[in-house]
Every structure is written in structure tokens, then in C-alpha cells.
Design brief:
single chain, alpha+beta, Neutral Protease, domain 2, Immunoglobulin-like, Zincin-like fold, nine-stranded mixed sheet, five-stranded mixed sheet, 29 helices, 33 strands, about 40% helix, about 20% strand, binds O-methyl-L-tyrosine, binds zinc ion, metal-binding, zinc ion binding
Length: about 900
């Protein structure tokens, strides 16, 4: 329900007449308007004279008419903020060109030409971090999605594939390392202390995969022999002091290379694979052909400064970028509407890899947690879009959890329906059929139909319909028959009011209560709005376990008695379903408490399940931890219509305190036991670290003083960042002398270490401390804080925006803070600024008082006359 928005009246419109003219809304790009580009660019030669403040770029393009496209007398070369220096056609000055906005449009008569274009750019002023930019004295590029047009004029679209040759020259002392895609073909000394290098990439690629790096870097070098015997040199380039922290990334890279050969039959295709780590980066990393550029956060890791979560993230992101070499680079996207073709598929590939490295059960639970806390809210809000959108204004806004995570779930469902072997046949066909092409999601689906033997006609709706389907499940027992009735609804989303039923693959099992066994799992396909499935031979009513392994990205509402949930939480042999039973139990209870009713019997049932989990000797600690984690506040808020974040927070804290109080002795014993496990990377040691800090979080809610001492003890004894940051996180939420002392210690210990100081900011901004807003405001004044570094901005402000307690302060001060951040950041880095908008955009799901304040902040942002295209699009969609 729309709580606060009122339709504009004629009077509103009259009042608007005196207002300054609205900034012109950026054009809408539609998927249906796709047309092949009329020109081919077989060869691209780029010559860079590099400097931090002045870089001169000479681009030489061979252009030919595209026989497969409608002929055009002009060629449009995209630009963004570029000034044209020289322009030549076939070596001669020519007048047949004109600027159209930011683009260069050239009139060409014959069928093939050579265009020479000179531009000059200032990387030091590039705070957007798109195109060529400076970071810590080095130069590097980010071209996806539309950054290449900030370097030179070019048809900057993913379906124009070209073979690149790059020459760079630069002062030797400042930039001893010069890198680009492909292979280093030549290098030498130039005049006046300069040197140069030439690189050639034999694989035709779109401009978004172009990359260049110049800087004073050192490499961790290794090698890998591929399955057909190709010897590949591997380098991870970092700043001098960071070399010791690159070992884990290198190991992850080699594991990824083996895994992709074994699991998907994909082999690396160059003699060189370079990774460069950079401190200033908008996203996690980028898969440029042969030259991946990474946010330092996803490369550098050692036990002293990286948590177990950081180690896993490095492994996952290294794999993700490496896997793009096939799913993204060898086969790229025809247009940006197909983004999920490469991103959804590559996320699935990295998830399967990490499942194989770390254990399937826990990884699956973690992935579902991310999906539910980020993608589900997106899918139920004003920014909901299908995994293959129909339109956009700014493509950067579509690098979303829906494209990535829901995209991965959709392909995972195909795998579930086909089985892993047939799925592999489908992917083999896809890679073989479309190698070297710019493909579409439809191409992928067709390969799955032909290769995996799936019938996917109705399944295509997963590509076109937004919104998380809701499945209601009712099991009725009569005689010896169990009848399962499933009903689905797909909620309306912006621009899509009516929805068609989706095919939903649900793995189910029916448990015999007495023996806690079942007859085997079954895959049920729900294809209609409502269907009933019957099962014979059940003398007693069985217990339904449904959506095992989270086989479909849907919300299941099951009509199930509480004691059956307790049974499943204790007995389900599917680890995800067991976790889910516990989550449902707690979610039901907490949403009721937040709505004002307290059911002590329900709480007791949760206590019983919680105690069983703590005592279960067969459980590994990593899984024990998953079962103990209470559902997050954002997820809980999603379960009700007009959520009151304050009451949800209180309810959740109340349950934590009750569990901490009731099971204090067991939790302290668990903490002590885990504390005695020495540091290591074994599953046992990692699991112990997870339950150790978790135990503290429950204890802290019940007994602040006692737990402050215990947490301080963990902090002081820590020989790794997982324990240290875990303890600091608990302390940061408490009002105690231990808090201040350990926060100071942490800062002094890691001063100057960017990634670790990010943790220091984030831990305070995410804390449960009642004064968190004041803390965040004070931290913004800290000399180490800067709006120019996206990691730092995220560590302070995104941690805060995701902290319901601070962000949803009833007086609206949290909303104002984030709106101020958006307005201040937008002129510096619009891409990062726009990523804050969804937090305010969720107002329709929040109770009326807060919703009004959130909306008012969005309107304040919308009133700014100078908004970027990124922020403008997100704010106007949110206000919708
Ligand atoms: N393709 C990258 C994500 C990415 C997208 C845009 C960027 O621009 C700032 C950077 C990276 C990936 O999926 O890893
Ligand atoms: Zn990706």
C-alpha cells in the first residue's frame, strides 16, 4: 500500500509554474530499440602519452561498413566530457564531422576508412573514477559500462568488437610499470626519462573491456599450466608494502583456473594474466581482458588484517573476475539489457566454486541471506526491475542485486531442473555456439533448451517479470493421503501490474515425524496459479520440508504448526531447510512481538531449538553459527506491510537478551571452548571463530558489563582480525570504558593501513550504540575521512545506512544525514552517490511517520538543480 504519496493536484501544478525549470530528464534507452551498429571497427590503435594531470590520447580506428546493419551515412562516436583535439580521416584533415552533444558524428562516404582522433584528458580531476583516473600516484582505467567514452571518441557499446593495440609512453621514474590487455609485444626507452611499452590483445573485444595501468607497482608472480599445456604467467600487482598480503589471492586464482577447467571445461586463452589492485574503485573488481583491475579490498588479505569473511570475499571475487574470461569476455553482451547474461551466470559460477571450496551448506545459506536482505527489498520496492530490464536512463544504476543475484538464482533453477550433467551440456553448447559473439539472454536460454534438453517457454517469464513470487503451501492429511496445495502470486511492480504464473521448481520432502526420516526428495514444478500434489501411503500426517536448498528464489508462506517448525529445526537433513525452519520460527515470533503481542510459548519453543543447536555434537560450528543467527532487521521489515523499524529493532534485541540471559552459561561455555581453538584456516578453526563472536553478541544483549570484559579479553588476546574485529564490534555497541580504550587501540595499531581503518569506521557506523548518529557525524570530521575514496565513504555511510537503529531514528536525523551525503557526494562521484538512494526509497514499506520523513528527504534531493543522471534516475524512480 502507498502510505504517504498523494496524487499531484492542479493547484500543485500551478505552484510549480514559478519554480525554476526542471533539469532536462536524461533520455530513456529502450531494449526494443536495439539496432546493430552500422559500422565495424576491426582495428583500434591507441597511443597514450601518460601524465597524472595531462594525458594525450591518439586513437586510430579502421572503420568498415557493417554488411549486417542498415547502412548509415554517418558514424556516431560516443564521448563524455571530451574535447576534440585533432581529427583526421584517411590521414587528411576533414571537415565532415560535427559534435552532437557529447558525441562526435562523422559523415563518411566510402566503405572503409581510417579515423585518427586526438583527445587530451586530466586523470587527476577524474573523481568519478570512470575512464582514466589517478589513484595514489598511479593511473588506471575503468571502462564498464560507459567509461571508455571519457578517454576517446568511440562506439562505446558492447556489440562493437575490435582488436586493440596499445602504446603507452610515460616518465620512467613515476610509472615504471606499463600494462594493458593481452601481451606485451615491445618496449623501450624514450626521450627525457620516459619509456614506452606496446601491448596487443589478439582477442577482439568491446571497449568496456579495455584497460590500462601505469604506476610504481610490484608483482607477486607465479605460473599456471592449463589443461592443454599452455604455460600462463600470473602476476598480482600491488604497492610495494602490500606484497605479503597477495598470497591468498594468488592461491584463489590458481584454484579458480583449475576449477573452471574441471567444472565447465573452460581454459584460459592468453600467456599472461595480470591483476592490479587499486585503492580508489567504485565496485569490487573488473574483468578487463587479461588485465583484471581490483579494489584492494578484494586482493589483499592476511590474518592480521583480514577477517575470515574478507578471505572468502577475496576468493569469490578473484574467481568471479577470472570466470568472466569466458562468461563475459569470450562471449559478451549484445547490449546492456543483457547484463545478467554475463553477471547472473558468472555469479552462479563463483557461487558453485565457493561451495566447492568452503562447503556447500554454509555457502548456500550465506548466498540466500544476501539475496533476501538486498535483492528481495529491491524487488518489492520502487526500483524493482526484471533481470533483463526493458529500459534505463543510466546503466550504472542497473548493476544491481537483481541482475547479479537473482540472475544467478534464475540460472541455478535451470541447473536444478536439468541436473548438473545436462546443465553442463547446455553450457558447453552455449560457449561453443556463441564464442566470439555479443549474445543475448535469449541465446543462453535457447542453448539450455537445445543442450540441456529443457523446455523453457514459460520459464522465460523469469527474465521479463520483476517481483519475488509468493508461494503459499498447505498440506492436508486425509486417510493415508497427504495433499499439498501450492498457490503462487507474483506481486505488482513498477510498470508491471498484471503478472503471469511462473514455473517454480521446489525441492520437497515429507518427513515421518516418529522416525525423523523421509522417503526421498522430490522436485515439484509449480507452473500454474494453483496446483495440488498428492502423496499416498502416509498413515500419519507427514511434516513438509519445502524449497530445500532454496531451489527457487521465492517467498514461501507455509501453513505449518509451530511444533513442526521446531521438529524441522532439529531434524531436517537438508541444511538449508533446517536453517529455514529456525528462521521462520524466529521471524513469526519477532513480527508478532513488533506488532505488540508477546507469545511466551513461542519464545520458549525458540529457546528449545536454540539450546538443541548449541548442544548438537554432530553439527560443525560453521553451521551451528548459521542456525544461531537471528533474521536481520531489513528482512524482518520486509515481512510486514508498514514496518516499524524501531519496534522491530527492540523486538530483536529483546529476543537476543532473553536468549543471552536464559542460555548464559551455555553461551559462555561455547565462547570458552571456541577460544581454545588455535588460529588456522581449517573448517574447525574458522567455525570456532564464528560462534565465538556470535556467543558474545547474545551475551552482550543480556549483560553489558560482564560481556564488555569478556569482549575486551577476546580483543586483547586476538591473533587475527576475525577475533579482533568481532570483539570490537560487540564493544562498539556498549557504553563502557573498554569500548573507548579498544577503539583507540585499534586505530593506533592500524593507522595508515587503509583497509583496516575502513573497518574502524564501519564498525562504529554499524554499531548498536544509541549515539551512533553522533559518532558518525564526528567520524566524518576525522582527518582520515574523505569523500574521494569510495571504500571510505561506504565504510562510514553505507554501514550507517544499513544500520536500522541509526538510520531509522524516529526524528528523521538518519535520513537527513544520508540525504546530505547524497547531495555532497553527487558532484564528486555520482555512481557511488546514487547507491545510497535505495535506502531512502524504501519509504512505502515503512510506517507512516518515518515514511513521510524519508520521502521529504528524497524530495529535497530531487529539488537540486544539478543532479547527476545517476542520482536523478534513482530519486525520480523512487518517488515514482
Ligand atoms: N563487471 C564487473 C562489475 C563492474 C561494473 C562496473 C564498474 O564500474 C565502476 C566496475 C565493475 C564485475 O561484475 O565484476
Ligand atoms: Zn561480474
Amino acid at each position: 500500500m502507498d502510505i504517504v504519496s498523494t496524487p499531484a493536484t492542479a493547484e500543485d501544478n500551478l505552484q510549480m509554474a514559478d519554480a525554476p525549470p526542471e533539469p532536462k530528464a536524461p533520455a530513456i534507452i529502450q531494449r526494443k530499440d536495439y539496432k546493430p551498429f552500422p559500422w565495424l571497427i576491426p582495428q583500434t590503435h591507441l597511443s597514450f602519452e601518460l601524465g597524472l594531470e595531462k594525458t594525450r590520447v591518439t586513437a586510430t580506428l579502421t572503420v568498415e561498413r557493417n554488411p549486417e546493419a542498415e547502412a548509415s551515412p554517418t558514424i556516431r562516436l560516443n564521448g563524455d566530457g571530451l574535447k576534440l583535439g585533432e581529427f583526421k580521416c584517411d590521414g587528411a584533415k576533414c571537415s565532415g564531422h560535427t559534435m552532437d552533444g557529447d558525441d562526435l558524428v562523422v559523415t563518411l562516404e566510402g566503405d572503409s576508412h581510417t579515423l585518427t582522433i586526438v583527445t587530451e584528458i586530466d586523470p587527476s580531476q577524474n573523481t568519478q573514477l570512470m575512464g582514466l583516473f589517478a589513484s595514489g600516484g598511479m593511473l588506471c582505467t575503468q571502462c564498464e559500462a560507459e567509461g571508455f567514452r571519457r578517454i576517446t571518441f568511440f562506439p562505446d557499446r558492447p556489440d562493437v568488437l575490435s582488436t586493440y593495440t596499445v602504446r603507452m609512453s610515460a616518465p620512467n621514474a613515476e610509472f615504471p610499470v606499463l600494462l594493458s590487455n593481452g601481451n606485451n609485444t615491445d618496449s623501450g626507452e624514450g626521450e627525457g626519462g620516459t619509456h614506452w611499452a606496446e601491448w596487443h590483445d589478439p582477442w577482439p573485444k568491446p571497449s568496456y573491456l579495455f584497460a590500462l595501468v601505469a604506476g610504481d607497482l610490484v608483482a607477486n608472480s607465479d605460473s599456471f599450466t592449463t589443461m592443454s599445456g599452455r604455460e600462463v604467467t600470473l602476476n598480482i600487482y600491488v604497492r610495494d608494502g602490500d606484497l605479503p598480503r597477495t598470497e591468498h589471492a594468488m592461491e584463489s586464482l590458481k584454484k579458480s583456473m583449475v576449477w573452471d577447467e574441471e567444472t565447465f571445461g573452460r581454459e584460459y586463452d592468453l600467456d599472461l594474466f595480470n591483476i592490479v589492485a587499486v585503492s580508489d574503485f567504485n565496485m569490487g573488481a573488473m574483468e578487463n581482458k587479461g588485465l583484471n583491475i581490483f579494489n584492494t579490498k578484494y586482493v589483499l588479505a592476511d590474518p592480521e588484517t583480514a577477517t575470515d569473511g574478507n578471505f572468502d570475499a577475496v576468493e569469490g571475487v578473484i574467481a568471479h573476475e577470472y570466470f568472466h574470461n569466458w562468461s563475459g569476455n569470450r562471449i559478451t553482451c549484445r547490449d546492456w539489457f543483457q547484463l545478467s547474461l554475463k553477471e547472473g551466470f558468472t555469479v552462479l559460477r563463483d557461487q558453485l566454486f565457493s561451495q566447492d571450496m568452503q562447503g556447500e551448506a554454509v555457502k548456500r545459506i550465506e548466498d540466500v541471506r544476501v539475496l533476501r536482505s538486498v535483492q528481495f527489498p529491491e524487488d518489492s520496492g520502487p526500483l524493482a526491475h526484471p533481470i533483463r530490464p526493458d529500459s534505463y536512463r543510466e546503466i550504472s544504476n542497473f548493476y544491481t542485486s537483481t541482475i547479479y543475484n537473482k540472475g544467478a538464482e534464475v540460472i541455478r533453477m535451470m541447473r536444478t531442473m536439468a541436473g548438473p550433467d545436462a546443465f553442463r551440456k547446455g553450457t558447453d553448447l552455449y560457449f561453443g555456439r556463441h564464442d566470439g559473439e555479443a549474445a543475448t539472454c535469449e541465446d543462453f536460454v535457447r542453448s539450455m533448451e537445445d543442450g540441456a534438453g529443457l523446455e523453457l517457454e514459460q520459464f522465460r517469464r523469469w527474465y521479463s517479470q520483476a517481483g519475488t513470487p509468493v508461494v503459499e503451501a498447505v498440506l492436508v492429511h486425509d486417510g493415508d493421503t497427504a495433499a499439498l496445495t501450492l498457490k503462487q502470486t507474483v506481486p505488482p511492480t513498477p510498470g508491471q501490474v498484471e503478472k503471469q504464473p511462473m514455473p517454480i521448481p521446489l525441492r520437497i520432502a515429507l518427513f515421518d515425524r516418529a522416525t525423523a526420516t523421509h522417503r526421498g526428495e522430490e522436485l515439484v514444478m509449480l507452473t500454474d496459479a494453483e496446483q495440488t500434489f498428492t502423496y499416498e501411503g502416509f498413515a500419519e500426517k507427514p511434516v513438509l520440508s519445502i524449497n530445500r536448498g532454496f531451489s527457487a528464489p521465492v517467498t514461501v508462506r507455509r501453513d505449518i504448526p509451530q511444533d513442526e517448525l521446531v521438529f524441522l529445526a532439529a531434524n531436517d537433513d537438508d541444511p538449508f531447510a533446517r536453517y529455514e525452519a529456525m528462521q521462520d520460527l524466529v521471524t513469526d515470533y519477532l513480527t508478532q512481538v513488533a506488532a505488540g503481542s508477546q507469545d511466551d510459548a513461542m519464545r520458549a519453543a525458540i529457546g528449545e531449538a536454540f539450546a538443541a543447536i548449541m548442544q548438537d555434537g554432530d553439527l560443525e560450528d560453521a553451521m551451528r553459527g548459521e542456525l544461531m543467527i537471528l533474521p536481520g532487521e531489513t528482512y524482518l521489515a520486509e515481512q510486514v506491510d508498514a514496518a516499524d523499524p524501531g519496534r522491530i529493532h527492540e523486538a530483536r534485541q529483546g529476543l537476543k537478551a532473553w536468549l543471552g540471559e536464559t542460555f548464559g552459561d551455555q553461551l559462555r561455555a561455547l565462547h570458552d571452548r571456541a577460544n581454545n581453538v588455535p588460529y588456522g584456516q581449517s573448517a574447525e578453526a574458522r567455525g570456532a571463530r564464528k560462534v565465538k563472536t556470535l556467543a558474545l553478541t547474545f551475551l552482550a544483549a543480556a549483560d553489558a558489563d560482564g560481556t564488555a570484559k569478556r569482549a575486551a579479553g577476546q580483543y586483547d588476546a586476538a591473533d587475527n582480525m576475525t577475533d579482533r574485529q568481532g570483539a570490537l564490534m560487540v564493544l562498539a555497541g556498549l557504553n563502557s570504558p573498554e569500548r573507548t580504550a579498544r577503539l583507540m587501540d585499534f586505530y593506533n595499531r592500524y593507522r595508515g593501513d587503509e583497509l583496516t581503518i575502513d573497518k574502524w569506521f564501519a564498525t562504529q557506523a554499524a554499531s548498536l550504540h544509541p549515539n551512533v548518529i553522533e559518532h558518525v557525524k564526528a567520524l566524518a570530521e576525522h582527518p582520515d575521512f574523505t569523500m574521494r575514496n569510495p571504500n571510505r565513504v561506504r565504510s562510514l555511510y553505507m554501514a550507517f545506512a544499513a544500520n536500522p537503529q541509526g538510520f531509522h531514528a524516529p526524528d528523521g536525523s538518519g535520513y537527513k544525514l544520508i540525504a546530505d551525503v547524497i547531495l555532497a557526494l553527487d558532484p564528486i562521484n555520482p555512481q557511488t552517490a546514487a547507491r545510497f538512494v535505495p535506502y531512502l526509497g524504501r519509504f512505502r514499506r515503512i510506517e507512516a511517520g518515518r515514511a513521510k520523513l524519508m520521502r521529504a528527504e528524497l524530495e529535497r534531493i530531487a529539488a537540486s538543480p544539478t543532479l547527476s543522471r545517476d542520482t536523478h534516475e534513482q530519486v525520480s524512480r523512487s518517488l515514482g
